[in-house]
Amino acid sequence: MIQRIQSIYLVIVSLLGGAAPFLAYLWLDSKGKEFYAQNDIWISLLFYVSGALALIAVFLFKKRQNQFVLNRLNIILNLFLLGFFVYRSLNLSGETSVSEKGIGMLIPVFSIVFLVLANRAIKKDEDLVKSVDRLR
Asked: Where exactly are the structural domains of the chain?
């Protein structure tokens, strides 16, 4: 159902993916200019897809297996995004282009944590339904 705890986790992931990257900067360049996700189309697209997948998963509460799979795909997407941020911050030598990392780089980490918590709650619900079916 929509009032389950996994729905709250998924709404948090949706808000993190849809709004937070555009409010918190990802990094500062050498000139002190803040770089947001909206400055790069691919980064903003990945954040939007992550938020949309989480929002779609909220409304799949009757199909728990599909919800679980969709969350796993979202975890993979956020791992890809996190890997890109790590590559971007470590690849540049001498801090020529990136001088300070922003809090926006941690958004995929928070999303992954909430998606794992949501998957754990979905698994708990699935186990509960299976145990009730066994009693019939």
From this structure: 5-135
